[in-house]
Amino acid sequence: MMIDTHCHLEDYENIETIIKNMEGNKMITSGVNDETNKEVVKLINQYPNVYGVIGIHPSEVSISNEKSILWIEEQLNNKKIVGIGEIGLDYHYGIEEKELQKQFFKKQLELARKYHLPVVIHSRDAIEDTYQILKEFKDLKIILHCYSGSVEMAQKFLKLNIYFGIGGVVTFKNSKTLKEVVKMLPLDHILLETDSPYLTPEPFRGQKNEPKNILLVAQTIAKIKEISVEQVLKTTTINAEQQFDFNKTL
Ligand SMILES: [Zn+2]
After folding, report:
1. Which helix (H) or strand (E) holds 81?
2. Most exposed residue of 6, 13, 29, 103, measured as fewest CB within 10 angstroms of its CB?
3. DSSP per position, 94-154
4. pLDDT of residue 93
């Protein structure tokens, strides 16, 4: 079985085909704001092998408010909401919202703590601040989605027992650092993800990504770590089942 631990399924016209292509496998679709969080709830109620995480993404804080967080909290009794995400910090397009991003980030980490749920973290050009905040929440199950930092930083996160979502970027020819990170990371701290419809792996770059391409990510990781694809799939599936409770009881 394969588990795509991070994708955005609200964006497909041919959703039935996308789901069918993942028959026998699981997907975790992620919300980023009020609108997409609602889509996540719709999708998980409709498709048995789709699970969800909901949260306010750092780039969406200016269009979100207190009510957004309250709505998220109300949904946490849905058995198929398996975590809070994607949440975090993103300073890529400027840092005017730095403080507001931190507020939303911490509030949602507190929510995850209260409900014993894992968190899926987005961090872009903000790795040091992300680390400083997560240090205070190391009792949580934390997944760094689409990790893009250095080997040294990855080692620091590992010490907090944080898991790493590895996706299509690892297949890119110019992803030298990420390949080094993957080589260093113990397989038992790696989760597979696609971030579909974004970050399509080689050799399909330029096309719209979809969860079934998770296999290409697994193949690349196998090559880097000089192990079999079966071992990558088996171990990363166990990891995903340890981080996310797919048989959530309330
Ligand atoms: Zn994402």
Report:
1. strand 81-90
2. 13
3. -STTHHHHHHHHHHHHHHHHHTT--EEEEEES-HHHHHHHHHTTTTS-EEETT--S-HHHH
4. 85
Domain that holds residue 102: 3-243
Give the pLDDT confidence of 21-60 residue by residue, as tens digits: 999 999 999 999 999 999 999 999 999 999 999 999 999 9
Measured in Å, residue 86 CA sits from the centre of ligand 1 at 7
Q: In angstroms, what is the span from residue 9 Cα to ligand 1's centroid?
A: 10
Quick check: is 175 in a domain? yes
* In a domain? residue 37: yes
Q: How far is the CA of 230 from the centre of ligand 1 (A)?
A: 26
The verdict on residue 149 lying in a domain is yes
Q: How many domains does the chain have?
A: 1
Q: Is residue 249, in this structure, part of any structural domain at all?
A: no
Contact 49, 69 (CB under 8 A): no
Query: Measured in angstroms, how far is the CA atom of residue 135 from the centroid of ligand 1?
Result: 22
pLDDT at 250: 77
Is the pTM of the predicted complex or chain greater than 0.90?
yes
Q: Determine the distance separating the centroid of ligand 1 and the alpha carbon of 6, expressed in angstroms.
A: 6
Question: Which residues have a Cβ under 8 Å from the Cβ of 23 and sit 6 or more positions away?
Answer: 49
> Beta 81-90 vs 119-124: how paired, if at all?
parallel
Ligand 1 centroid to residue 97 C-alpha, Å: 20
> How far, in Å, from the CA of 3 to the mean position of ligand 1?
15
95 pLDDT band, cuts 50/70/90, is confident
Gap from CA of 88 to ligand 1 centroid (Å) = 11
Per-residue model confidence (pLDDT) at position 107: 98
Assign residue 203 the CATH number of its domain. Answer: 3.20.20.140
Share of the chain above pLDDT 90, in %: 96
pLDDT for residue 169: 96
